[in-house]
Amino acid sequence: MPTQEEIYKTEGDKYEALIEREDYQGNILKTLREITPLENRVIYDLGAGTGRLACMLAPHVRHVRAFDVAEEMLRVCREKLITSGLSNWQVDVADHRQLPVEDQSADLVVSGWSLSYLAVWNPETWKDELEKWLGEMKRILRPNSFIVLYESLGTGNESPIKLEHLEKFYPWLDEVGFQNKWIRTDYKFASLDEAEFLSRFFFGDELGDQVRKNKWEILPECAGVWWKQI
């Protein structure tokens, strides 16, 4: 079974098949609007993947730029944005910690299920990497703008849980002044077979077995929302 890092590099279409089923109730956009206005804003989507947030936001904002280190993910993101017929977007390969943009050039930064990898993939230097990222956010955001992060609080869970591999990441967000709450971002699949196949593909056999056992065509998921004004 490929790792999630390998999936991001090679499996854009299959990953998109999963992601397009997520948050069928529309809680992500609703939550963003509760935190900050979107209209006429320049927004940077970091770790954009196949465009889950960028494509959702593009119809509502002045301009959206999507960044990711995985070109395979951005290939799908780019195709989706082209299909949308919109022209207020740009897609670039870039790292969270060093973005090819001018100082104070964004009104909002969003990042979904991505920032935590700086901690997970850099176990020895995780805090330094996150601090580099936060410094970059202070550089690129205009004064009084927001960072809004979405991170996992359990897929296959009806109520939020703290994931063991993010045990250092959650407290760090508190330490640097992020507020937070949680929402449901449930997946709604076309069939039980699709739910099992896509869940097993990305999350592993344990969740795939759970989906089959519980007959989950709607797969429960909890997500944390963290936000901070710069």
Q: Can you put this structure into words, describing what you see?
A:
- The protein has 230 residues and is an alpha/beta fold.
- The protein is built from ten helices and nine strands.
- A seven-stranded mixed beta sheet has the order 3-2-1-4-5-9-6.
- Strand 1 (42-46), helix 4 and strand 2 form a beta-alpha-beta unit.
- Helix 2 crosses helix 5 and helix 9 runs antiparallel to helix 10 (205-214).
- The longest helix has 15 residues, at 126-140.
- It is globular, with a radius of gyration of 17 Å.
- The termini are far apart.
What is this entry, summarized?
This protein has 230 residues and is an alpha/beta fold.
Indicate the topology.
Elements: H1 4-10, H2 12-19, H3 27-35, E1 42-46, H4 52-57, E2 63-68, H5 71-84, E3 89-93, E4 106-112, H6 116-120, H7 126-140, E5 141-155, H8 169-175, E6 179-184, E7 187-188, H9 192-203, H10 205-214, E8 218-219, E9 221-229
Parallel strand pairs: 1-2, 1-4, 2-3, 4-5
Antiparallel strand pairs: 5-9, 6-9, 7-8
Helix pairs in contact: 2-5, 2-9, 9-10
